[in-house]
Write a structure and sequence with these properties.
The chain is an alpha+beta fold. The protein has 11 helices and 10 strands. It has helices at residues 6-23, 27-33, 38-46, 65-78, 80-99, 102-113, 229-265, 277-305, 311-336, 346-355, 364-376, and strands at residues 119-122, 138-141, 145-156, 163-169, 179-185, 191-196, 207-218, 222-223, 267-268, 271-272. Strand 2 and strand 3 form a beta hairpin. The chain binds acetoacetyl-coenzyme A.
Length: 380
């Protein structure tokens, strides 16, 4: 039977305590006013939450993926927007950690992992989401630098990031094998932050377009080798999917707690609605699914910590947990009746926040592609 270690338990309690004090009281206002909590994000860096899978020698807390997952769940429970900020910051470190050289690690990974500099991960083009191989963002080799032109869309943290991991096309004839990964500093000439998206949910997270207009990236900022960009993105996304699964569990738990609380308080037909079987069954289903999602994500994270391949488990966790979050949000709102549909109750925000979890970092449909390929591998 899997048990959290005392260190993991401590990290969970630390994240819960931080979330209760620094996130929960402000989450509603930050959502309403679209406030990105820059100072709070800095404090999270000081607590080691922004470099949880990075070893101590590179500025991280070296806590590992299981600790990362449980801490992120606590953060997302209080504020799902801050959950995705943390998730993408940690994900953005993976390309440099796994494929970067020593100089890149010293120069970029250390400040990212300590939380001094926020990271972003730029794969998606306006016309290439699920299929990164068809992107138009182009990086042309000009000798001692690459000249980059194109637009990246829906980039979480993009407006506040000091370092961006960029995937761009270096060889248009080669599809997925023609992509390369680069490290971009926000001061590089030709790099601009474009429009900020007005989102349905996660409104306190930052989502922007990034524009590369004859942007010069020094040769030494290529991560790994030319042509490795797709693989680098996929490896990073495997970890990213543990993050989004954990965020989804945080949202789902918040939905469950809100549903329980409301069903105790709300009286109809002379008694608490929580005493009706219709409501109790919804609560039982939510709790059961959340528990199953939690074990799936812990299994993916544990495999990652053990150095094993975890692509299938991460996709299963992301697929299941994100759909559980959406079902939990639907049920929690249903329990609230008409009150769930107005902004006075937290469940309205949770419902909006849950929606994107089945879309970003690979839609549910993409996860099913990954899972089906993994489980049928032996036959093909
Ligand atoms: N680890 C290592 N290598 C991998 C890999 C993995 N997990 N997945 C694929 N690869 C390798 C393959 O082995 C293959 O290598 P070779 O070329 O050497 O054979 C290569 O990558 C191509 O793989 P596929 O043939 O499987 O590629 P595909 O074109 O069929 O695509 C896909 C598969 C699963 C649909 C993939 O394109 C995908 O995951 N798409 C979704 C992209 C995505 O998640 N975008 C989200 C953007 S980030 C975001 O949302 C962040 C945010 O801000 C919140």
């Amino acid at each position: 039977m899997f048990q959290l270690t005392s260190e993991q338990e401590m990290i969970m309690l630390m994240a819960r305590d931080f979330a209760k004090k620094e996130l929960e009281p402000y989450a509603e206002e930050r959502d309403r006013e679209e406030i990105f909590p820059e100072d709070t994000v800095k404090k999270m860096g000081e607590l080691g939450l922004m470099g949880m899978m990075v070893p101590v020698e590179y500025g991280g807390s070296g806590a590992g993926a299981v600790s990362y997952s449980i801490a992120l769940t606590e953060i997302a429970y209080a504020c799902a927007s801050t959950g995705v900020t943390m998730s993408v910051a940690n994900l953005s470190e993976e390309p440099i950690l796994k494929f970067g050289n020593e100089e890149q690690k010293e120069k970029y990974l250390v400040p990212m992992a300590t939380g001094e500099v926020l990271g972003a991960f730029a794969v998606t083009d306006p016309g290439a989401g699920s299929d990164p191989g068809s992107m138009n963002t182009r990086a042309v080799d000009k000798g001692d630098y690459y000249l980059v032109n194109g637009t990246k869309s829906f980039i979480t943290n993009g407006g506040y990031a000091g370092v961006i991991n960029l995937i761009a096309k270096t060889n248009p004839e080669k599809g997925n094998r023609g992509l390369s990964a680069f490290i971009v500093e926000k001061e590089f000439p030709g790099f601009h932050v474009g429009k900020k998206e007005k989102k349905m949910g996660l409104r306190a997270s930052n989502t922007v377009e990034l524009i590369f207009d004859d942007c010069r990236i020094p040769k030494e900022n290529l991560i790994g080798k030319e042509g490795q960009g797709f693989k680098i993105a996929m490896v990073a996304l495997d970890s990213g999917r543990i993050g989004i699964a954990s965020q989804s569990i945080g949202i789902a738990r918040a939905c469950l707690d809100e549903a329980i609380k409301y069903s105790r308080d709300r009286k109809q037909f002379g008694k608490s609605i929580g005493s009706f079987q219709a409501i109790r069954w919804m609560i039982a289903d939510m709790a059961t699914e959340i528990e199953a999602a939690r074990w799936l994500v812990l299994s993916a994270a544990d495999k990652k910590d053990s150095g094993l391949r975890f692509t299938k488990e991460a996709s299963m966790a992301k697929l299941f947990a994100s759909e559980v979050a959406n079902r939990a949000a639907y049920k929690a709102l249903q329990v609230h009746g008409g009150y769930g549909y107005i902004k006075d109750f937290r469940v309205e925000r949770l419902y909006r926040d849950a929606r994107v979890t089945t879309i970003y970092e690979g839609t549910s449909e993409v996860q099913r592609i990954v899972i089906s390929r993994e489980v049928t591998k032996a036959e093909t």
